[in-house]
TrEMBL record:
Protein name (database record): FG-GAP repeat domain-containing protein
InterPro entries: Ester_Hydrolysis_Enzymes, Ricin_B-like_lectins, Ricin_B_lectin, SGNH_hydro, SGNH_hydro_sf
Superkingdom to which the source organism belongs: Bacteria
Upper taxonomic lineage: Bacteria, Bacillati, Actinomycetota, Actinomycetes, Kitasatosporales
Ricin B lectin domain boundaries: 160-285
Molecular function terms from GO: phosphatidylcholine lysophospholipase activity
Originating species: Streptomyces azureus
Length: 288
C-alpha cells in the first residue's frame, strides 16, 4: 500500500467511535467507509439491548456526514468468547436489516459477510490471526468491487482548506472552547493561536466546521442566542452566509456577534442584529 497509515482505538465501543466519526469524516472526506464494530460492546455486555440501535444510528451518522461515500457494514466474525458469542448471532441478524433500510432511503450502504472466518482463524479469543485478517480483507475487497460495479464509488472529495477566522477585534479568533468535540461546546473568541480548535472550513452547504462539528445557533433566532458547535444535521441554524464583512445566519437574519464588543478571552458568541460593527467582522473563508 502506498499509504499504510491507519488510526485504531483499542477497546472502543459503538458510541465511542460515533463520538470520533464526525471529525474524521470532515477531515478526510472518504469515498469508502468500512465498518466492523460491536465486538467490544458484546464482549463486555455493554448495553447489549441497544447495540443494534446504536449501530443503526452510527450508520445514519456516517451517511449523513459523508453522503457521497459508500458504507460497507460487516457482520462480526466468530470468536471463542462466551460473553460475545451469546449475543453475536442476534446482533449479526440485525445488520442486513439496517443495511436494507439505509438502501431504501437512497444511501450507498452494503452488507459484508464475515461468516467465512472460523475459530481456526483466531489469534486469541477475539482477534483474527493473519489468515483471518486476510479473509476479512478479501470480504471487504469484494464489497468494494460490488459497489464499484453498481456505480457507487466516487473519487474522494477534497476537503476545504482550513484556516483561522479572525475577528474585527484585534488579535482575536473564532475558537472552540477547550478544543471540545461534544455537542453544545461554546464557540468563543480567544487570542489567535495555532490550535486545531481555531481552524475552520467553509462548506458549500453553508456550514462552518471545526473539530468535526458545525457552527450552530442554539435553540433560537432571537438576539442573544448563544453560538456553539453541534453535530452537523442540515438545520437552518447551522447555515452562515457572508454578509457585510461578517457572517449572517439567514434563518434568523442575525449576525455572528461578540457580545458588547468584549475582547476578553472566553467570551461566548451570540446572534445579534447586524450592525456592521467590528465585533461582527470576521475574515472570510472560501467554501469547498
Amino acid at each position: 500500500m502506498s499509504d499504510p497509515d491507519n488510526e485504531g482505538h483499542s477497546g472502543y465501543k459503538i458510541h465511542q467511535i460515533a463520538a470520533l466519526a464526525d471529525a474524521s469524516l470532515t477531515r478526510y472526506r472518504p469515498n469508502v467507509v468500512t465498518l466492523v464494530i460491536g465486538t467490544n460492546d458484546l464482549n463486555e455486555s455493554y448495553q447489549v439491548s441497544t447495540a443494534t440501535a446504536r449501530l443503526r444510528s452510527l450508520v445514519d451518522q456516517i451517511t449523513g456526514a459523508a453522503p457521497a461515500a459508500t458504507g460497507l457494514v460487516a457482520s462480526l466474525a466468530v470468536s471463542t468468547s462466551g460473553s460475545e458469542e451469546q449475543y453475536r448471532a442476534a446482533y449479526n441478524q440485525a445488520i442486513p436489516h439496517i443495511v436494507r433500510d439505509a438502501q431504501a432511503a437512497g444511501k450507498r450502504v452494503a452488507y459484508v459477510d464475515m461468516s467465512s472466518l472460523t475459530t481456526a482463524d483466531l489469534a486469541d479469543t477475539l482477534h483474527p490471526n493473519d489468515a483471518g485478517y486476510q479473509k476479512m480483507a478479501d470480504a471487504f475487497h469484494r464489497g468494494i468491487q460490488a459497489a464499484d460495479g453498481a456505480g457507487w464509488l466516487r473519487n474522494p472529495a477534497p476537503a476545504p482548506a482550513a484556516a483561522r477566522v479572525q475577528s474585527g477585534l484585534a488579535g482575536k479568533c473564532l475558537d472552540v472552547n477547550g478544543a471540545g468535540t461534544a455537542d453544545g461546546t461554546a464557540v468563543q473568541i480567544w487570542s489567535c493561536g495555532d490550535g486545531a480548535n481555531q481552524l475552520w472550513s467553509a462548506y458549500t452547504d453553508g456550514t462552518l466546521r471545526s473539530m468535526g462539528k458545525c457552527l450552530d445557533a442554539a435553540w433560537g433566532t432571537a438576539n442573544g442566542t448563544k453560538v456553539q458547535t453541534w453535530t452537523c444535521n442540515g438545520g437552518s441554524n447551522q447555515v452562515w452566509q457572508l454578509y457585510n464583512g461578517g457572517y449572517r445566519n439567514p434563518a434568523s437574519g442575525r449576525c455572528l456577534d461578540v457580545p458588547g464588543s468584549s475582547a476578553a478571552d472566553g467570551t461566548q458568541l451570540q446572534l445579534w442584529d447586524c450592525n456592521g460593527g467590528s465585533h461582527q467582522k470576521w475574515t472570510a473563508l472560501t467554501a469547498g
